[in-house]
């Protein structure tokens, strides 16, 4: 049997070279693991470290201030869910504000905002400086002073101007009614063939606050109301009811369902018991209805 013979043969010098290469590789690996030439020894004193830390902290504060969202002046009547969240308001406080605005009511002061939303004094103190109300609201207190001097001299019905015939220029004589509001009142009035039925319809004019409405009613009133044939609430059908302001098809069906369940209405105020009925619009809706 022939003895196995390796086909790989090295000379003596080659073997020395291989051993030397292995030695160099092992040495470099040890140097890599046990010696770090980039290691920097801490040569700073404690006082120097404190100064250095203060500089870092000041830079962090500057960066935090730059990245903090800046609050710009805003009208609190138009706070959205996201805006309220960023201001620190709770969901309940935001919902109270939206429910109040859904009644076509307006917040005209910081006190009104807290009364409606129920925010804490601490939060109000932070966000109130950014409230921005219309100029006529900010000057309202100045205008009320001279008016109080004549509070006992109210105009009679005959002395007041007819709201259905008043011009935009005449309406601007009322404090709080500017060019835009006066034109808005006239356009809304003229959208009805015959004008207003009652002064209460001023509530439907967008942008009119209760105080401004009262100021208008001191000088103006409906003297020539639009003629309206009132619907009998106990016989009217869905198509009849939807012609009434603020009544849509779902509400009309709810009104008829209540009428069926209770065998008719005995009083118009019973509409308040109908599910989904707009409570704040009852007086306006009653202008079109009757019970025969």
From TrEMBL:
<keyword id="KW-0472">Membrane</keyword>
<dbReference type="InterPro" id="IPR010994">
    <property type="entry name" value="RuvA_2-like"/>
</dbReference>
<dbReference type="Pfam" id="PF12836">
    <property type="entry name" value="HHH_3"/>
</dbReference>
<dbReference type="InterPro" id="IPR051675">
    <property type="entry name" value="Endo/Exo/Phosphatase_dom_1"/>
</dbReference>
<protein>
    <submittedName>
        <fullName>Helix-hairpin-helix domain-containing protein</fullName>
    </submittedName>
</protein>
<keyword id="KW-0812">Transmembrane</keyword>
<keyword id="KW-1133">Transmembrane helix</keyword>
<feature type="transmembrane region" description="Helical">
    <location>
        <begin position="16"/>
        <end position="35"/>
    </location>
</feature>
């Amino acid at each position: 049997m022939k003895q196995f013979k390796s086909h790989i043969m090295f000379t003596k010098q080659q073997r020395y070279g291989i051993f030397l290469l292995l030695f160099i590789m092992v040495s470099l690996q040890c140097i890599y693991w046990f010696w770090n030439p980039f290691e920097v020894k801490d040569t700073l004193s404690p006082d120097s470290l404190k100064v250095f830390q203060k500089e870092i902290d000041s830079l962090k504060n500057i960066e935090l201030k730059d990245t903090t969202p800046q609050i710009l002046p805003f009208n609190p009547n138009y706070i959205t869910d996201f805006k309220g969240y960023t201001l620190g308001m709770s969901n309940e406080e935001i919902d109270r504000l939206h429910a109040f605005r859904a009644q076509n009511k307006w917040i005209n002061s910081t006190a009104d905002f807290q009364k409606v939303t129920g925010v804490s004094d601490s939060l109000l103190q932070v966000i109130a400086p950014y409230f921005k109300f219309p100029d006529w609201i900010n000057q309202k207190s100045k205008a009320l002073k001279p008016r109080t001097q004549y509070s006992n001299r109210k105009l009679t019905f005959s002395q007041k101007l007819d709201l259905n015939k008043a011009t935009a220029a005449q309406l601007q004589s009322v404090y709080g009614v500017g060019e835009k509001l006066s034109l808005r009142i006239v356009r809304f009035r003229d959208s009805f063939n015959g004008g207003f039925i009652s002064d209460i319809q001023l509530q439907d004019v967008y942008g009119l606050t209760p105080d401004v409405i009262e100021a208008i009613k001191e000088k103006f009133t409906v003297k020539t109301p639009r003629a309206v044939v009132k619907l009998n609430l106990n016989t009217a059908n869905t198509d009849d009811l939807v012609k009434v302001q603020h009544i849509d098809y779902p509400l009309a069906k709810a009104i008829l369902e209540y009428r069926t369940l209770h065998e008719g209405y005995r009083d118009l105020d019973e509409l308040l018991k109908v599910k989904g009925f707009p409570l704040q619009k009852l007086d306006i809706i009653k202008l079109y209805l009757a019970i025969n």
